[in-house]
Amino acid sequence: MTKLLEGKTALVFGVANDRSIAWGVVKALHEHGAKIGISYAGEVLKKRAVPLAESIGSTFVEECDVTKDEDIAAVAEKAKKAFGEIDILVHAIAFANRDELGGYYYDTSRAGFHTAMDISVYSFTALAAAFQPIIRPGGSLMTMTYYGSQKAVPSYNVMGVAKAALEASVRYLARDFGPQKIRVNAISAGPIRTLAASGVAGFKNLHNRFAEVAPLREGVTIEDVGNAALFLASDLSARTTGDIVYVDSGFNIIAIGDDEAKSP
Ligand code: NAD
Q1: In-domain check, residue 28
Q2: d(CA 38, CA 15)
Q3: Distance between alpha carbon 186 and the CA centroid of its chain, in Å?
Q4: DSSP 8-class letter at 91
Q5: Is the whole model's pTM more than 0.85, yes or no?
Q6: How many domains does the chain have?
Q7: Is the Cβ atom of 21 under 6 angstroms away from ligand 1?
Q8: Radius of gyration of the CA atoms of the chain, in A
Q9: Does a structural domain hold residue 263?
Q10: Contact 136, 86 (CB under 8 A)
Q11: Is 26 in the pocket of ligand 1 (CB under 6 A)?
Q12: CATH of the domain at 75
């Protein structure tokens, strides 16, 4: 097998457990020869992140709470010491309080809005800035988004607004980083049962309905997202930047389910 990431180094943020999208990305990048560093949110997740990192022979496993500037600066400094420069940065982090992920969007609190924006949007920009000095030309930054940024999805609420801002951030960052020959993209994944997803009211129904309606009639896995991340991380995507790559069995291109429209 041709390894697409031989000689490249990747830092992946957002591994909570082996169901995390970040873990699907780590597996794909590792399989293709990338040297991997992993970052997790805090002490509670350490017991999950460390064994996962060990299972792929990664020794760089660092805590970073992205609400703290000092944590971001510290992890960038540690990465510089450990790797010198890096090629790939993956941001697979989001958070909103459970209260905000159900009911009416207009009930979003000011504090809840700030939290969702800070952790789910600003953190990607902050990481991009902190790592900018050590990302090699030809490098790739990516984040994870969801279609609730484009259309109003039940219960997704403030997170949909955050994802819209995250996708706009991708475009602005792509402009900023382009002259350094560094790409910035997002993957928009269909619903996957993860820890973060379990916070969205009615997610189970949304997840089940998805595979019935999507053109490919199949749900999305963390391995599917990992494969798209591999493309965005590798030189195969050398001329793709500022883009949103859908990994959603085609869900985003339809307006109404076949069962509702009674089409052949
Ligand atoms: P997950 O719960 O496994 O991952 C979310 C991660 O965010 C966790 O590792 C968590 O520790 C981290 N995080 C939260 N607050 C943090 C903080 N302050 N500092 C550092 N890290 C913090 O769930 P996931 O579904 O794998 O989510 C990863 C990304 O994929 C998110 O951006 C999510 O919105 C996006 N996404 C998920 C789906 C889905 O259906 N699961 C679909 C599309 C996009």
Answers
A1: yes
A2: 7
A3: 7
A4: E
A5: yes
A6: 1
A7: yes
A8: 18
A9: no
A10: yes
A11: no
A12: 3.40.50.720
